[in-house]
Design a protein that fits this description.
Heterotetramer of two alpha and two beta chains arranged as a dimer of alpha/beta heterodimers. The chain contains two helices and six strands. With 118 residues, it is an alpha+beta fold.
């Protein structure tokens, strides 16, 4: 265990969005747009994206790689649930990315955990 007092190199946000409309959780192209907009809101720079749809009525898994790290999402439209992972370093602001996704997906409830990294 490293107990040094240096500031964290990055921030890692984990969020569970419950009560999201199934229509918002099943379109990989729209989810990719949301994540790219979230990166822009956080002042992060996308470098690669990959999204996979599991079929009609099913969810999406996706990853947006950033110069500052990543944003990922896994969705279950049949349960109205999205698991979101945002890790950013440098001057990027992961909280702004999460706020953007919250405004796009309008969850009924959110569980959020933030971890300093490094």
């Amino acid at each position: 265990m490293n107990d040094h007092a240096a500031p964290a190199l990055g921030q890692h946000l984990l969020a569970d969005f419950h009560g999201v409309s199934a229509a918002l959780l099943s379109d990989p192209a729209e989810i990719e747009v949301m994540l790219c907009q979230a990166a822009a809101a956080a002042a992060a720079t996308p470098i690669h994206a990959h999204f996979h749809h599991f079929g009609p009525g099913l969810g999406v898994t996706g990853m947006l790689l950033l110069q500052e790290s990543h944003i990922s999402i896994h969705t279950w439209p049949e349960s109205g649930f999205a698991a979101i992972d945002i890790f950013m370093c440098g001057d990027a602001q992961p909280g702004l990315a999460l706020s953007h996704l919250h405004s796009c997906l309008s969850p009924q409830s959110v569980t959020r955990h933030q971890l300093p990294r490094g």
